[in-house]
Amino acid sequence: MTRVTETASFDPELFAFLRELAKHNDRDWFAANKGRYEAHVLEPALAFIEDFGYRLQSISQQILSRTRLERVIQDFNLYEKERKTGIMEDLVERMRRDIEVQIVKGDAFRVAFTGQDPRTVMRVTERLASHLPEVAESA
Q1: CA pseudo-torsion sign 102, 107, 108, 111
Q2: How many CB atoms lie within 10 A of CB 103?
C-alpha cells in the first residue's frame, strides 16, 4: 500500500492568531475569529497529529514485530521460566506490554523496556533502540 502524505506545518497566521487571542481572550472575539482558528490552528494541528500518529504506529509495529521480539527474547534469555512451559506467542505479547515507544520531539523517539534485571533492561533497550534509525527511515 502506498501512502502519500503532505507534511503538516504551522504557518505564521497560527502564531498571529495566538498572540491576538492572548490579548482578546473572550467569547465575542473568538466567535468573530472562529474561521481563522479552524483554518490556522485546528486543521493544521489535526493534520500534524494524524501524520505523526501514522508514523508512530508504523514505527511501533516494526519495533514490536514478532520476528524482532522473538530474537530479542532468545538473545537475552528473557522470560526464562515462562519459556520452559509457555508458547512463544504469549511471550512476545508479554514483551510488547513491557515496551513503550513514544515520539519525544520532531523526529526523536523514545523506546523503553521494563524488566527485572537492570543490566538486561539496559541491553534490551539498547537493542530495540538500535533499530530505530532504520525503522524511522522506512516509516
Answers
A1: positive
A2: 14
**Helix runs in 64-131, H state only:** 66-75, 80-85, 88-97, 118-130
56-73 average pLDDT score: 87
Domain count, the chain: 2
Asked whether residue 86 falls in the same domain as residue 125, the answer is: yes
Q: Are residues 84 and 132 in the same domain?
A: yes
Reported as a single tens digit per residue, the pLDDT across 93-104 is 999 999 988 777
C-alpha distances out from residue 127 to 68, 69, 76, Å: 10, 10, 10
Residues with Cβ within 8 Å of 68's Cβ and at least 6 positions away in sequence, in order, are 62, 131
Residues 53 and 97 in one domain: no
How much is the average pLDDT of 46-62?
Answer: 76
